[in-house]
Amino acid sequence: MSLADLVSKFSVGSKLLVSSLALAFAAYSCSGKEAGFDCFSDDQCETNKEICLEGECIEMTGCYYEENCPDLDRVCYKEPGEIFGSCVPIDSVDVVAGEEVNVEDIKSEEDVNPVDTIIEDYKVETNQEDTISNQDITVEENCVLGELEGKLCVEKLFETDYYSYGITYHGKSLWISDLEDYKIYKISLDGDIEDTIDVQHKVKTMTWQGDNLWYLSENVDEKLTYAYKVNQEGDVLSSFPLPKDNCWGIVSVEDHLWVSGKDMRFYKMDEEGELLDEVHYVSGYMGLGWDEEKIWVAAQRKVWELIPEAEEPFNQGNKFSLDQFFGNEQYIFDLAYDGETLIGVVGTAPEGDKVDVYRFVISN
Known about the structure:
Blueprint: H1 3-26, E1 50-53, E2 56-59, E3 74-77, E4 86-89, E5 95-96, E6 99-100, E7 117-120, E8 123-126, E9 143-145, E10 151-159, E11 167-170, E12 173-178, E13 183-187, E14 193-198, E15 206-209, E16 212-219, E17 224-230, E18 236-241, E19 250-253, E20 256-261, E21 265-269, E22 275-280, E23 287-290, E24 295-299, E25 302-306, E26 319-321, E27 330-337, E28 342-348, E29 356-363
């Protein structure tokens, strides 16, 4: 295991632990703003000494991210039960992500720099013996390299004049929710509205399952998120409450549903609402897309591959960071798959005037 792998594994493991502990500390529910949060990311907090934890800006009393430690040979170490930690030399840490490691293996001066992969002029160079699969990929101006392999290219399809969190694909059209007017629009890939479904609820995200549509909506009175199954006329066929309030994304995978919760979990459920499985992850508010082989996750300005059956579902999947294409207040709220590429709805948070629709082309 390389030093960079060790640092990455420690970072993911510690953030997962801290995120779980932060739930009890934040004690935040959907009884707040309609969107369910005061902040969507750190840059929405008033000062750079605060971070956004579970929808609330919290003042940092120590390091939280590895980036808070300026020296590359230091990591952010947190004592059990603590949200914030301190920057310590990496060779002083003998437990990483809950696993014992041999400190002598990482103390050598010959070890590579923790940032052992450098992307410069869109070419990947590495000073390790092993090479990575996207080393020879030529990257265009509108593309980024994946953390593990391949590239993702961004293309803006069209703008809208309404605000939405949810997008899905069915037939040969996109379906996008309108938060203000309680509608779901059937839209061509050119942005033309072809049809409209009137619904009874404020739709967050949605997914097609056969000829019926599932969507998520908050029940303010009960302080719960519900999953609703409707037909193409908008009639409710069935519904059930989700395991936690303020769930965000939903996607249909074969004969079951996956839902992302604000409590750092993905829930696998059947059509009756029975919980079949759950997967822990390290961020909140994630839109979901299914490309008939993989679950893709939209998290702020990142697109991640989720591997539910893996020991580390997020750490082992591919990741693309799209910060260079979108501003600090822009977020990829949800994903759809049109049979060839991913398509995302992008807007400002916590609430803006409209959203734009982008195509994300992933290739090796």
